[in-house]
Amino acid sequence: MNLPSINSTTKILSFDLEANGLHGQAFAVGAAIVCADGQIIDQYTARVTVHDEIDEWVKDNVLGSIEGMAETHADYQSFCNDFWTWFVAAQEKADYVVVQNGYPVEYSFLNDCQKMNLEERYWQHPFPILDVTSMMVQAGYDASAKVRMEGRLIKELGLCKHHPLDDARLAAQIVFELSHQ
Length: 181
Fold this sequence. Notes:
By secondary structure, this protein is an alpha/beta fold. It is built from 7 helices and 5 strands; from the N terminus they run βββααβααβααα.
C-alpha cells in the first residue's frame, strides 16, 4: 500500500464522539472531511437519545457544549448504521482517517458499527487510522504543549470544546499543522 504524504492536497476524514463516560455508549458524533486550507467538503453530525443515567463528568463538561445539537436518533442501532453509511462513502473522498485519541470511545464505536453487519462491513474499516495524540508525541510535544496548541486552535477557529464536530475539525487541523513542521 502506497501511503500519500500529508500535504496541501491532502483530505482528512476526522471524526469525534461523545460518550456516556469513557467506557459508556457513544451518543453524539461529528465528522468532517477537511482540506489542508481548512475547507470542509463534507460533514456529518448525529445524536442519539441517552437512555441510561448520564455520567457526572459528561453532565459537567459535554452537555452544555452540545445543547443545540438535535437528537436525530431514538436508538443506538440506527445511530450507528446511519453514521456507517456516511462514513464508508466519506472514506472514498479522503486520504486519511483521523481521531484525536481513539481509545476507548472512537475505536469501540467503530467496532460496534461493524459488528452490526459484520459480513458486509468486515473490510470497510479505516486503514490506516491516524491518532493525533500519538502523532504529537512523535513530533516531540509534551502534554502542556499539546494543550497550548489545542487552546490556540480552538480560539483561532472559533471552536467549542467537547462538541464532536468541532473536536473533529480540531484534530484535522492539528494533523495539518504537524505536517508543516
